[in-house]
Amino acid sequence: MPSEVLSAAPAATARPGAPARHLIEVVGVEKIFGDVATGHRALEAINILIEEKEFFTLLGPSGCGKTTLLRMIAGFEHPTTGEIWLQGKDVASLPPRERPVNMVFQNYALFPHLTVSQNVAFGLEMLRWKKADITARVQETLSLVKLAHFANRKPAQLSGGQQQRVALARALAPRPQVLLLDEPLSALDLKLRKEMQFELKRLQRETGITFILVTHDQEEALAMSDRIAVMNTGRVQQIGTPEEIYDHPTNRFVADFIGEANLIPGESLGRRADAIIAVRPEKIEIARPGVTPRISGVVDVATFLGSDTLMEITIPGGRLRARIRGAAKLPQGTEVGLVWETEAERELLD
Ligand code: ATP
């Protein structure tokens, strides 16, 4: 494991005549595990450009290939076809320790017999830093992750959240250009996870290091990322800012995976029969008297949630969910007309 947390100056070949336009370029990457003809195709036609100082997230359900892609950027896996460029250099032949990249592992992978300081210093010692520089950098990095008072403890004397911070400090200490984070918050309880989301954002801003996060948690991705690549079954479905992905999903998978979406058959709304129209529950309102509804339905269940009311409504050919502001506790069986702004609906490619 130790070599996996190190970083050093890259020594790869520069692309002939091509300036570095993006910090990371993943170009036409495909990954087949096992035999090329019969093996498992984990990634297909992946093209992703990541910029300096970005907080970029690979988001998707279990098995979609996000960890495989992250491990390729780190150098622990190699593409079957395609290229990965870091700072304008093809890194195909570079081992992990020679890439300007560090990785934070899900299980933290701390050395149990070393103190917090020694854990953070370890990578710098392997890079043959001078003792005084190591001491200064360890102190600075422990302050950055708010662990200065825990420098002499062993990992077993720390909480899960504190251990997570040590793992972060260790990976940040050499100031890599890119920090890869594989589901770093999944072992933490919900409250701590929310706190660490802010912490990670802060660390990324303060250090200016590009973060690439892998998660299956769409809320986490929306809260933290500058941009998100939504993945499914080995393919990138959409790349965009959280707002773009939430408000303008390009296909049914993204609309359904990010937040909640009602997917209404086109013909129920007088549209093409093969179209699917996505409308977010919070965009739906009950039509006032005299207003022509987009669709009519019958209330099945209405649940008051404090700031708004969640209604399950039966519509012709299906059901939809509407989140209505305030208390709208209509009894079961009430007929309602529903409206939403035209801009709130998206016609999706299936
Ligand atoms: P999770 O969130 O569950 O970690 P993931 O999106 O990160 O999932 P990957 O770990 O990248 O998914 O795996 C993608 C696919 O490739 C899965 O079907 C997995 O079983 C397969 N896979 C991963 N590593 C290997 C391997 N070394 N050999 C064979 N198949 C593998």
TrEMBL record:
Keywords recorded for this protein, A-Z: ATP-binding, Cell membrane, Membrane, Nucleotide-binding, Translocase, Transport
GO cellular component: a single term: ATP-binding cassette (ABC) transporter complex
Domain of life according to the entry: Bacteria
InterPro entries (UniProt xref): AAA+_ATPase (IPR003593), ABC_SmlMolc_Importer (IPR050093), ABC_transporter-like_ATP-bd (IPR003439), ABC_transporter-like_CS (IPR017871), Mo/tungstate-bd_C_term_dom (IPR008995), NA-bd_OB-fold (IPR012340), P-loop_NTPase (IPR027417), PotA-like (IPR005893)
Catalysis: reaction(s): ATP + H2O + polyamine-[polyamine-binding protein]Side 1 = ADP + phosphate + polyamineSide 2 + [polyamine-binding protein]Side 1
GO MF term list: ABC-type putrescine transporter activity; ATP binding; ATP hydrolysis activity
Ranges for domain ABC transporter: 24-258
EC number: 7.6.2.11
Transmembrane segments: none
Enzyme class: translocase
Claim: Cell membrane is one of the keywords in the record: yes
Role this protein plays: Part of the ABC transporter complex PotABCD involved in spermidine/putrescine import. Responsible for energy coupling to the transport system.
Similarity section: Belongs to the ABC transporter superfamily. Spermidine/putrescine importer (TC 3.A.1.11.1) family.
Subunit structure: The complex is composed of two ATP-binding proteins (PotA), two transmembrane proteins (PotB and PotC) and a solute-binding protein (PotD).
PANTHER family: SPERMIDINE/PUTRESCINE IMPORT ATP-BINDING PROTEIN POTA, SPERMIDINE_PUTRESCINE IMPORT ATP-BINDING PROTEIN POTA
Protein name: Spermidine/putrescine import ATP-binding protein PotA
Originating species: Acidisoma silvae
Gene name for this UniProt entry: potA
